[in-house]
Fold this protein.
Amino acid sequence: MKILITGSNGLLGQKLVNLLKTKQEIECIATARGNNRIKDKQGYIFESLDLTNSRDVFEVIIKQKPDCVIHTAAMTNVDECELKPDECNLNNVIATANIVKSCKEIRAHLIYISTDFVFDGTAGPYSEEDQPNPLSIYAKSKLEAEKIVEDSGLPFSILRTMIVYGITDDIQRSNIILWTKKSLEEGKDIRVINDQFRGPTLAEDLAIACYEAAIRKATGLFHVSGREVISIIDIAYKVADYFGLDKKYIRPVSTAELNQPAKRPLKTGFIISKAERELGFNPHSIEEGIAILNEQINRK
Ligand SMILES: NC(=O)c1ccc[n+]([C@@H]2O[C@H](COP(=O)([O-])OP(=O)(O)OC[C@H]3O[C@@H](n4cnc5c(N)ncnc54)[C@H](OP(=O)(O)O)[C@@H]3O)[C@@H](O)[C@H]2O)c1
């Protein structure tokens, strides 16, 4: 089975390439904007691909003829999307339309990664049947891309996820766990939101869910996240506990006080029973996830 990944330099993209190249039955084609930033270049094919260029997307997909495309690439900085709506539309909506158009030529199974931000956060945790109500430009672009995938006539899966954490090879991209650890180690005060609730998702767990969706040819909408729904500040406290760091540097702040450009849903979280049942999804707990990250940091 041939699987093509978009956004292979991203957090999920890197985890997916590293997972798929270990699978005998899978031929993995990694694609990313610019150069390949994954350290290990063995065991898969790499094609440089900017998804906003429809002709290039078409050429690569027609040349590679994947059975399945896992579309992870997106403009993911929520505040940047709010400030640059045209760029957000281009990278999140038009790019997805380009992929759909090319996949239709070869009837590939399309797996699209979406977000808990499609919900307004007034009634979490959410199931796949709940009604979206996106609050930001980013969230609206992801929901619009979901619709393009759903209406494509292709066999598709949409995996919605949230607050994904993990380490990439370039370590450019931080996350709540790495940021808290580093700040507390350096004795720096951090302001952490105390009124937003999420289900943190280990990037490796999400990559496994994508792989399972591909090989099972599972179709439809799936909610894929960690099981525990906790406040962002409680994640920071868990990091402090795990590494034995001083919590006095963690300063609670409310969403209203922080006043970020993009609106965020207050309480999301997912009911993941459909993914457990149909994808065999079995995510790690937050403590287990922090321990896995710690091992990876120590190996670097
Ligand atoms: N991380 C989360 O907490 C989270 C939560 C909910 C949903 N999601 C969704 O999960 C997916 C994966 O997220 P992630 O955490 O892996 O994000 P990420 O680390 O920001 O990676 C996204 C990748 O997409 C690439 N990209 C953006 N525009 C592109 C284009 N026009 N052509 C080719 N590549 C392009 C970026 O390339 P560059 O590296 O060159 O910029 C980046 O490597 C995304 O669809 C995101 O919306 C993520």
The CA atoms of residues 90 and 119 lie 22 Å apart. The radius of gyration is 19 Å. The domain at 2-168+198-228+268-286 is CATH 3.40.50.720 (Rossmann fold).
